[in-house]
Structure formats: C-alpha cells, structure tokens
Amino acid sequence: MRIAVCPGSFDPITHGHLDIVRRAALLFDEVVVLVVTNPDKRCAFTVDERVDMIRASLGDLPNARVDAYEGLLTDYVRRVGAQAIVKGLRAMSDFEYEFQMALANKQLLPEAETIFLMTRLDNLYLSSSMVRQLAQFGGDISKFVPEVLIERIMTRLGPPADADNQVG
Ligand code: PNS
After folding, report:
1. 2 is catalytic
2. What residues does each domain of the chain span?
3. Cis amide leading into 12 (omega within 30)
4. What is the mean pLDDT of the chain?
5. Which atom of ligand 1 approaches the CA of 72 most closely?
6. Does domain 3-124 sit in CATH 2.10.70.10?
7. CB of residue 7 inside a 6 A radius of ligand 1
8. Which of 41, 129, 142, 143 does the annotation list as catalytic?
C-alpha cells in the first residue's frame, strides 16, 4: 500500500490545496491530508475547524482522509508508514522554503521522498493568506475556496455587516 501525506497549515484549505490532494490521490493508494501545527504561524482557525473544513471540501474522494498532528512531520510519516510527502509548488518564491524543508525531512527520514506537484496555472498566486485578506475586506472568495466553506470563512473573518471602511 503506497501512502502519501499532504501536510500544511490549511488556514483555510483552498482550491490550490485541493487540486494537489486530488492529483496525489491518483498516484497513491491512500492520501492523508495532515493539518500540522506550524509554530511560526498564528492561525485564524483552530485545528479542529481546519480539519472539519478539509473534510467538508474533499467530497467524494474515497482514498483521502484527514488527520492532525503536532510535532515533527517525519515522525508522523514514519508512524503511518507513508512513502512520500506530497506538496504543491507555485511560484519560484515557494522554492527556497520548500527545498529547505525537503532537505531537512530527507535527513530526518531518508526512506521517505518529498514529491512536488506543480500548481495549475490558475492557482499560481493563490494562497490561504490571500483568501484571509480578501475575506477581511469583504472581497469575493468564491473562486478560491469550495462553496461549502464560504459562509464559515466570511463569518469568522469578514467585516461586520455595518462596516463603512472609514479610517480615523
Ligand atoms: O502550509 P504551510 O504552513 O506552508 O506548511 C508547513 C508545514 C506545516 C508543512 C511545516 O511547517 C511542517 O512540516 N511543520 C512540522 C514541523 C516539522 O516537521 N518541521 C521540520 C521540517 S523542516
């Protein structure tokens, strides 16, 4: 059984992440979408909320499941017996950070491979932080996240209904 782990903060999950998960699910017997606590980030949604949002977004993808983990990614990968860590790669700006993580993970767990799937062109500049920022200013996030998430995201992050955007 070939298992891949797709790790991330998923704060929140976007169409960009989902595209990578779906493509990984075609290549592996099982894909674990793993919400990993990134100590350098303060998240807008709790781990449980992010797990719920991923479950709601995956729809009918029989060989994908969702889990959460706090600790070293490689410890989780070893524990579930996965062969690969699958991540999406967007613009060059992702490369250095991802390369560093992939090398560190290779040192920690040589038997696992990090595999990068190139983003689809239309997701090149899509990120969770962009979705959060759009939501904060009342922008339209419908092109970037699954429909089932829009209300939760806007309720949490969107401006209050009577906001008039006046500064000062
Ligand atoms: O979506 P993100 O925030 O870019 O994902 C980064 C994440 C969570 C995959 C990364 O920070 C991670 O793997 N954290 C777990 C801690 C760990 O294993 N660190 C060593 C990797 S160098």
Report:
1. no
2. 3-124
3. yes
4. 94
5. 18
6. no
7. yes
8. 41
